[in-house]
Design a protein that fits this description.
Layout (H helix, E strand, L loop, with lengths): L15 H29 L3 H12 L5 H13 L1
Protein name: Antitoxin VbhA domain-containing protein
């Protein structure tokens, strides 16, 4: 019997699909956290409106992660 199929062992041996999903969610959370950190630095540099626009574009799917990160990095450097 697979360890994750046993209901008594679920806490000890989680399903591999669940582990993979948890890793993917953590990766997405890390990426969003990086964007928000860059946006905070851009706001501190006086570029908050532009940072908000970039975040809006990212969350609405108009631009990808790499594009948003590069734009926010440029704003944070100013």
């Amino acid at each position: 019997m697979r360890p994750w199929a046993d209901p008594m062992a679920r806490g000890i041996h989680p399903d591999p699909a669940v582990e993979r999903a948890v890793r993917e969610v953590r990766a997405v959370r890390e990426r969003i956290g990086a964007l928000l950190t860059l946006a905070r630095r851009a706001r501190a540099a006086g570029r908050g409106d532009e940072a908000e626009r970039i975040l809006d574009d990212f969350f609405e799917g108009r631009i990808g992660y790499e594009t948003a990160r590069k734009k926010l990095e440029r704003l944070a450097e100013c």
